[in-house]
Amino acid sequence: MVAIERASRILMYSHDTFGLGHLRRTRAIAHSLVRQNPNLSVLILTGSPIIGSFDFSSRVDFVRIPGVIKLRNGDYTSLKLHMDIEETLAMRASIIKHTAEAFDPDLFIVDKEPLGLRGEVENTLHMLKEMGVPLVLGLRDVMDDPDLLEPEWERKGAMPALENLYDEIWVYGLPQICKPLDGMHVPESVLRKMVYTGYLEREVPSEAIKPYIISKFEPPYLLVTPGGGGDGDLMVDWVLRAYENHKNLPYPALIVFGPFMQSEQQNAFVERINKLDNVEALSFDAHMESLMDNAAAIVAMGGYNTFCEILSFDKPAMIIPRTRPRMEQFIRASSAQSLGLVSMLEDDNERRPDTMATALRQLPQQKRPSDVVVPGLMDGLDSVNRLTQKHLDTRAKNRETAATLSQISG
Question: Are residues 190 and 47 in the same domain?
Answer without folding.
Answer: yes
